[in-house]
């Protein structure tokens, strides 16, 4: 049984891709007010939510339980509407050595759009399940953000 793996989820969005991506670049600090499965978020290190060197503390509801972790934005690619994050510490480190998240907002040729999230992970041992609960969390969050932006 492999300790490392990759999972992806892609969900359609109705918000224009540039507007959807922009919320990650300019309103990341507000996600606990937008996403139903994010009860708490705050800066841990640094003074700006939207730069690559800041570390944030998050509480996420995954599989019905609060999960505490830290997150650091590793890369922002505005041209390709993508971002890379590193999740670490807290409850997450009880099960995963590595947990990297890649997000991309995709504009399709037919005018539709989607948000794709890929998780690269390494479990601490074979008894740990792949992070399927996190994929459900990401799917719900994609929809919450889209719904919020459509109302704005």
Notes on the structure:
The chain is of the alpha+beta class. It has a single domain (4-151), classed as START domain (Alpha-D-Glucose-1,6-Bisphosphate, Chain A, domain 4, 2-Layer Sandwich). The protein has helices at residues 17-26, 31-34, 132-151, and strands at 4-13, 40-45, 55-62, 65-77, 82-88, 96-107, 113-123. A 7-stranded antiparallel beta sheet has the order 1-7-6-5-4-3-2. Belongs to the MLP family. This is Bet v I/Major latex protein domain-containing protein. It comes from Stylosanthes scabra. Residues 2-152 form the Bet v I/Major latex protein domain.
Summarize the structure.
With 152 residues, the chain is α+β, with helices and mostly antiparallel strands. It has helices at residues 17-26, 31-34, 132-151, and strands spanning 4-13, 40-45, 55-62, 65-77, 82-88, 96-107, 113-123. The chain has a single domain (4-151), classed as START domain (Alpha-D-Glucose-1,6-Bisphosphate, Chain A, domain 4), CATH 3.30.530.20.
